[in-house]
Design brief:
The complex is a heterodimer of chains A (about 550) and B (about 600). Chain A is α+β, with helices and mostly antiparallel strands and about 550 residues long. Chain A contains 17 helices and 20 strands. In chain A, strand 4 and strand 5 form a beta hairpin. The longest helix of chain B has 19 residues. The chains are: A alpha+beta (about 550), B alpha/beta (about 600).
Amino acid sequence: MSKSIASNPVEGIKAASNFLRGTLQESLLDGATGTITDSDTQLSKFHGIYQQDDRDVRENRRRQKLEPDHSFMIRARVPGGICTAQQWLVLDTIATTWANHSLRLTTRQAFQYHGVLKRDLKSSIRAINDSLMDTLAACGDVNRNVMCTALPELSKLHTQVYQAAAGVSEHLTPNTRAYHEIWLDQKKLTDTQDNEPIYGDVYLPRKFKIAFAIPPHNDVDVLAHCLGFIATSHDGTLTGFTITVGGGMGATHGDPTTYPRLAEELGWCRPEQVNQVAEAIVTIQRDFGNRESRRHARFKYTVEKLGVAWIREELERRLGYTIETAQPYVFTRSGDDFGWKQSDDGLAHLLLFTQNGRLADTEFATQLTGMREIARIHKGDFRLTPNQNVVIANVSESQIPVINALAAKHGLDSYKQLSKLRLHSIACVALPTCGQAMAEAERYLPGLIDKIEQQLEKHDLLDQAITIRMTGCPNGCARPYLAEIGLVGKAPGRFNLHLGAAFDGTRLNRVILDNANETEILAALENLFDEYSNNRNTGEYFGDYFIRSHQQSPAEESKNV
Amino acid sequence: MLSTLRIENSPFNEQQLKQLQSSIGALDPAQSQWLSGYLAGRLAGPITADSTPQVQANAVLTIIYASETGNSEGIANQLLASLEQQGFRTELLAADNFRPAGLRKLKNVVFIISTHGEGDPPDAALDLFEYLESESAPRLPELNYRVLALGDRSYPLFCEAGRKLDERLQALGASAFGQRVECDVDYTVNAQKTVDEIILYAKDRLAGDAQTAKPGALGAGHLSLVLNESRWSRTQPFAAEVGQIQRITGTDSDKDVYHIELALDDSELRYEAGDALGVWAKNDPELVSRILAALQIGPSEIIHCNHTDMTVSKALTDHLEITRLTSDTVLAYAKAGSQDDLEVFFSGLAPDQQQLFISQRQLADLVDAYPAQFPAQILVEMLRPLAPRSYSIASSQNIVDEAAHLTVATFNSNASGTNRQGVASGFLNQRLKPGQQVRVFLEPNRRFRLPENPETPIIMIAAGTGIAPFRAFLQELESRASNPDSWLIFGNPHLRTDFLYQREFLHWRNTGLLNRIDTAWSRDQAEKRYVQDVVREQAVLIDQWLQRGAHLYLCGSLQMGQAVLDALQAALAVQRGIDTVQAAALLSDLRREKRIKKDLY
């Protein structure tokens, strides 16, 4: 196993951390600051914790001679986004006790809290673990929350695929005892040494993302992940997975050596081979990923550099057996399909829209309370979708009216009235808490959509599903490069406008406007909507129309971010 | 400079050198200046050798002072200058620089002593009190004395230390050559009157003994130096321009604390870390209007105040105390307004209840609760003269140069549901604008200075705005080459909003100037937590630091100071395996050695 000598400082921090311990214990006890030390902020991510500050008040706090208003984001890892009603109630209690009274559903089917003060970290994390969830590896240079298509009508197939996803998640969870010592006050074991057989003591060069898709749904945007498993089935029974590698969203403004990339097909494996394949791919990235430059450290660059054929050869060498050729798949859509669905086992599932994944009680709707009340009476479970929405899953016939009533009472049934555009929108958190954000996203997109809706209404396009995604920076948390309308923040009030991605998540978009303000963005869209409403073919999606009419060739991707 | 004086390069022997170095090293710039003038004056003038200050037996009058804030010292210096001007050989002694047994040899002594906390004498007088109150205290039939006591009527047990001293001296057979004088916070008039009386007494009774020195013998040069120790004083304050007024508690904090920067340009005011600044504030004109309206007194009605005629409105705004009540004011108000209920009620209260009553109310609250009507002149006469407020300076001149920084919490009293502000904090934080002027004067606090030895470790314990002098200390250390071990223990309600000067203290910790910060955020967890809890938790470390010779500084409220001392006593008892009495003695020793230093209010 080759281990490169790394020059980037995070590699040094990991190496010196004694399996992710660092000085976190001491940092938590330091009552003079709401922060943990700089190197601990790198390590805390592996524990599912990001140090952030309210950027809106930074300048004022500086004048007040106070440190920035620091708090922490905690991410609970929930493979496939599935949790029980009991677990939901615990997550809700954490949100209302220690966090900022909101529960956020992420684009990776995880739960996220914001505004947790350092002094409340331990209580929050302990509560999550007490309810049999955890936050370990929710962030950091490890395998992240494993995603899985949320709502197939085929319940048997979903169960099988979900089990594979949960199995990989479990298999790739770090072994270190640091998490239990620091957050759960478990005793330091003196007789056993920490050992990370998969990750090694410096873990991966960068985060690693895995998704499982069940065609024809591509709600997980499977080609946006380092490693993808696309289910193949026969008569509703899982037969195996087509494996894809090398997808990823993140890029850096002004650096053409960084770019979003779609995954490529690698081969096909049987369900029982999934853990071995995933482990081998992860160790290939561990050994060959770039540890010099973090912005070039994702697996997509390793794949780009070494080629899919080489990766497959190396995979087979590590597995000790060959894998089969990829099997074809067909996706019809990305995004979510709202409302009630019935599955083959007779149970019903309600997919609800939550704008940008934020559940809170506001003057308009009491969605956080509503979900709590549903959780109190719900006998099934919950599923977070990859698009920041939530499914009330496995509802028996008799419970449907009760749940309908609660959803209506608390403004959770807005999917019935909202435009298709809004229902297909995603925004990342961005300002004021995310340290990466260069522009607004979550706080701005809803208002921008109001204005775009007026344009759509004018052109009679309100019923047309169009995906729109906004991020405050080019790192791509909301997968903006796979949106028909992608907006990537560059500076306050300024975005790059990307157009032309496929509605089914199989083609990236490209930059149309650089550093544009709202007026420029709306003007560009106005022209295109006008054309699109007049000239589109039957059933033609907005992204496809744009490529057909405005691009010489439907190029696979644009590296010009 | 002084430390380079050696036997070889000076006319002194080793012991003299040692004494010189330790005594001159402790002087502030004004004192050094005074001393140089004094020595020059002695060489130039016709003073005979037997008037050396060290030859105590030859002094006809001795002034012994003890204070925590420097007020006593100021009056003592004034008295000294006046007596010397009249030709009386006078000796000036700080109570902690003098062996109490020496009292037996003295014939005429003026004691100037302040009262602190719950009627306590200042630390400087601990030995003196212990000596006088012990069973072996000698009879003092030869001693003629007079006590000038300083205090603050808005605290319980006004001038208690002075009263105790007076009674004890009487009991030991000493004779007072005048009534004990009790001065409130505005002490200038009373103090001056007393100085005059003492001079009369000296002329009358001691003239025969004063032949060795003739009036004016010290020479004009010397005298002017003595009298103009600083151009600015309490009675002649400097008008400082306000630079910055910045709130430094977080937006959603319950505490309203401001950082205020004052320009001292051209004032030649030189202060040291630990000193305080006296601030003459003005009352809120709006509050004055409301009080006068409620009492149906016309604001432009002319009254007599401070020996001159002025409008009642001006008197209340600029000259009289309306935010701090005293028992006398309450009773006078009841009488003038024929408020028998108030009089009966208030007189019937136990002293501590009376104290609580007045500490929670201002004149405006009385006026609201007990509407009355009486002549303006009566109102003026029932009120105390407005006294300056004192703030520990939060800066070092080595860093901020011709400026002084203050840390001011808006003081609120809220007994009647109205939100009343303290005179100075309201003035500084709310009414003053940058560019305006505020009248200030220096209040040296020699008892709250960094250790003489630049390597001595320091433990700084503060709650709330008590952090101010420690910011000055750290700035001072930052400007020096030496870097003693230092430790800050700070408390306030919330970490997020109430760590005053957080960025600066964290910076000092990051750079290694400050070794350690421990905090007590009282409301950040279910159980309240205070700095004294940190003292208890860190008993081992505190003991280690003290064993290494650390000096321990306390700044904050009186209650906090007492709680920390109690916790410290208990902690030391446990650490050293001694009983409470021994631990108390240990603490007294530390205070006597000036290793526990307090700036409490």
